[in-house]
Amino acid sequence: MLQQTQVDTVIPYYNRWLESCPDLQCVAEKNIQEILTLWEGLGYYSRCRNFYSAVKEVVKNHGGNVPSEWKQFRALPGVGDYTAAAVMSIAFHKPLPAIDGNVYRVMARVLGIKHLTPYNKNRIKNRLEKWIDTDHPGDFNQALMDIGARICRPNKANCIGCPLSDFCKASALGTPNQYPTRKKKKPIPHIKVVAGLVWFKDTFLILQRPNTAMLGGLWEFPSGKITSASHPSKELQSIMKNEIGLTVTIGEEIGSVHHVYSHFSMTFSVFHCFIEHKESLQSHGPFRWIKPSEIPCYPFPKANHKIFDLLEFSK
DNA sequence: AATGCGTGGGC
DNA sequence: TGCCCAAGCAT
Length: 315
What we know:
The protein is built from 12 helices and 9 strands. It is α+β, with helices and mostly antiparallel strands. It binds a DNA duplex through helix 1, helix 4, helix 6, helix 7 and helix 9.
């Protein structure tokens, strides 16, 4: 949960998770849909799918016990060098430095490293392997991460009161914020998407996204990119026909929301749509006709919830 | 090595 | 408001 996600954001999800699913056996007994619903809203859903796979693997191959050896734990899906070192040091007291984005920044400043090249990252690792408190490796790692998160901030290094300032090169130079250099991000493209809330009686249609795609395993309304300059409702009608073979009547526009993903942004316009009879639809994947009251049973992306909010389908 | 992958908070 | 950034990992 903590990968690329702030602690304060994770805490409520973590608590909710433990309340409904307190141990690995419990995770293994649930299906992926229930697990994704626990994760819903946290983002980076491959973390959730990987965790689920890892739990299955631990139950099947390790007798339900989390491996206490680096090599076996590191091999689990979704576990990289950082996560492996964090768990090994905190849970099993192994003297391995857990190097996250905070620690790279703090150490770059302490050592006066401008560029986080692979060579310099390796220097940081070697230095921490010497410095780590072998009696309390977990505390050492967490302390260093906390210094990064609370004191040695990316654009706001508060050297006054920092326990490392006496031997920090970047602080001595007076320009700690300039360490390490950061590359500017490329601008992300913007797309226009139109979607339909397709009603049949008191149910509407949802489709499940493929596991390997972005937002994999989550559910959504049938939708498509707006490509031409024609009227959105005309475009929506042809999307419905071409993608799932439904001939729909376009109704009122529910609304339009803006949503920013990590690598693109979109305006998401959703219209009520209606069908007279339950036609057979040619779906590429799983689909359901659900009532608004069933929304909490399925994981939906944030953009879809923004539409639910407009409809006051409160969850 | 560079890119894809969500969402929310801070300023 | 529009960026930057967050207890990274997989490919």
